[in-house]
Amino acid sequence: MPLVLLRDFFPALGRWRLWSLLAWLDIRQRYARSALGPFWITLSMGVMVGSLGVVYGTLFGQPMTGYLPLVGTGFVVWGLIAGVLNDSCGAYINNANYIRQSDASLWTYIFQVLCRQLIMFGHNFVIVLVLVAVFGVDHAQALIWFPPGLVLLMLNLTWMAQIFALSSARYRDVPQLVAAVVQILFYITPLMWRPGMLSKHAWLITFNPFAALVDLVRSPLLGQTPATNSWMGGVCCAIVGWLAALWMYSRAADRVAYWV
């Protein structure tokens, strides 16, 4: 497995101009001839945050000054997670022609997905900046935990993307399965509700790795230090996941060109 990193992963990582250009072209093509262009991403996310934040905040009896930042930051982080998981299923299928005709490492197309979603995350992050400007951050020093939390999140999303991309290339039912599971995870991950509201069913948070990953990125933006359990869960998930992804890649990479 270490040979896989030396042979494929690091060379693909070094070709950042290629996969970053492909990611940017994907976004430009999606919003071609549009007046707002990629900022439709921000607009649609802002409308969803505002509408659902007001509705569920009223239903839960939560003060908007604390609830809207909770929902807004949670949705922005979840947009990155869900986007990577769903898009990674087509990473190899959508690039079948390149895979058959080019000697580029398969990791190139994984980095393309990650870069594309990070660009969209950057557009949506405007919403977080607006929420911070309006409601403020009580303990700004907690923001120091945001960069390492985002790095750990991306490390986990990278191995997930590889596993889903390989699985989808082999079995075409996987994208539909992933989409359904992501939809379920949206409701059982503390995005629109606080973890304390689920005291009777706390196991849904304890055994949900995405709750920890969201906490690593969202808590610093809310002026809070991520829980120690979140760091431990994120690191353990990354170690186990990368071992599984590298093992799977070493066995299946040479067959992807035939599957797609």
From TrEMBL:
<feature type="transmembrane region" description="Helical">
    <location>
        <begin position="177"/>
        <end position="193"/>
    </location>
</feature>
<feature type="transmembrane region" description="Helical">
    <location>
        <begin position="66"/>
        <end position="85"/>
    </location>
</feature>
<feature type="domain" description="ABC-2 type transporter transmembrane">
    <location>
        <begin position="19"/>
        <end position="220"/>
    </location>
</feature>
<dbReference type="Pfam" id="PF01061">
    <property type="entry name" value="ABC2_membrane"/>
</dbReference>
<keyword id="KW-0813">Transport</keyword>
<protein>
    <submittedName>
        <fullName>ABC transporter permease</fullName>
    </submittedName>
</protein>
<keyword id="KW-0812">Transmembrane</keyword>
<keyword id="KW-0762">Sugar transport</keyword>
<feature type="transmembrane region" description="Helical">
    <location>
        <begin position="38"/>
        <end position="60"/>
    </location>
</feature>
<keyword id="KW-1133">Transmembrane helix</keyword>
<feature type="transmembrane region" description="Helical">
    <location>
        <begin position="143"/>
        <end position="165"/>
    </location>
</feature>
<feature type="transmembrane region" description="Helical">
    <location>
        <begin position="230"/>
        <end position="249"/>
    </location>
</feature>
<dbReference type="InterPro" id="IPR013525">
    <property type="entry name" value="ABC2_TM"/>
</dbReference>
<keyword id="KW-0472">Membrane</keyword>
<keyword id="KW-0625">Polysaccharide transport</keyword>
<keyword id="KW-1003">Cell membrane</keyword>
<feature type="transmembrane region" description="Helical">
    <location>
        <begin position="106"/>
        <end position="137"/>
    </location>
</feature>
<comment type="similarity">
    <text>Belongs to the ABC-2 integral membrane protein family.</text>
</comment>
